Amino acid sequence: ASGDESAAESISKRGNNGKQSTEASLNATKKRKLEEEEVGESAAKHATTAPGSTPSADLQTSNKKLTKKQRKKLAQEKARQLEETLAAAHNDPNNEHDATPEHSEPAKKKSKKKEKKDCSDETNGNSNNPPPPSRPSSLTRERRLAGGLVISDILLGAGAPVRPGKRISLHYTGSLRSTGKVFDKNNSKQHPLVFRQGTGEVIRGLERGLEGMKVGGERVITVPSKLGYGSKGAGEDVPPDSDLVFEVKVLKVG
User: Which residues of the chain fall below pLDDT 50?
Assistant: First the structure.
C-alpha cells in the first residue's frame, strides 16, 4: 500500500510539472505575438509621420520581424498615402506653372510672334494708330521759277497739256506756308474748279504754276505773297503778305 501511494504521488507530480510547462509555453507564445504587434504599430507610426521618405535602419530591421500579412498591410498604407500626396500636389493651383513647364514655352513663342507682328505693323503703317497726315512727296526735285515760284511734281500726267485759253478743271487744296492751315479747297467730283487759263480768273501764282502740267498730273505749287494775295491778304483766312502752298490735280483740259 505504501508503494502504491508513492507511485501515485510521483505520477501526480509529473502531471503538475507537465501542466506548468504547457502554461509557460503558451505564455511565451502570447508574449512573442504581443511584441510583434507592437513592432508593427511602431513601424506604421514611422511610415505615417514621413510618407514617401527613405526608411531608417531601425525601421528596416523591424520590417524583418513583421509577418507577411503585416508587411502587406504596411505597403498598402504607404501606397495610399503616396496617392493622396500626389493628388494634393496636382490640385494645388500654386504648382501649375512648376508642374507643367511645357505649357509655358508655347506662350513665350506666341508672345514673341505677337511682338514681331506689332513691329511689322508699325513699320508698314498698319498699326491701330494711323500715322499723322503729311504732304505728298515729290517725284522730282523742286524747281524755282521766275518771281520766287516753286513747283514740284507728285505725279506726271499723260493727258492733254495745260495751255493758255484752255478751260481747266482742277482739284486743289490751298494752305498757309507758315502754319499749314488750310484756307480753301475743292475736291468735288461734280463741281470742280473750272476756269480759263491765262485770263486772270485765279491768282497769277496758281496760273503760272500750272504751266507744263497734263491731265492726270499732280503738283505742289509754292506761291510767294506777291504772286498771291499780296499785302492785302484775303479776309481772315489769309493774312497780309502770306506765302501759299497749293496741292493741285488737273482733271480735264478742253
Answer: 11, 46-59, 61-63, 96-104, 125, 133-134, 136-137
Which ranges of 66-155 does DSSP label H, i.e. alpha helix? 68-91, 96-99, 104-124
Grid coordinates given for 162: 495745260
d(C-alpha 141, C-alpha 57), whole Å: 95
CA-nearest of 164, 153, 173 to 216 is 153
Q: What whole-number distance in Å separates Cα of residue 183 and Cα of residue 239?
A: 11
Tell me: the pLDDT tens digits for 39-88? 555 555 544 444 444 444 444 544 456 787 888 888 888 888 888 888 87
Q: Could you give the C-alpha distances from 115 to 12, 14, 33, 107, 121, in angstroms and in order?
A: 106, 102, 73, 12, 10
Residue type at position 19: K
Query: What whole-number distance in Å separates Cα of residue 120 and Cα of residue 127?
Result: 9
Q: Which residues contact 93 (CB under 8 A, 6 or more apart)?
A: none
For 162-200, letters b (16+ CB in 10 Å) and e give beeeeebbbbbbbbbbeeeeebeeeeeeeebbeeebbee
Helical pair 2-49 and 68-91, crossing angle rounded to 10 deg: 20
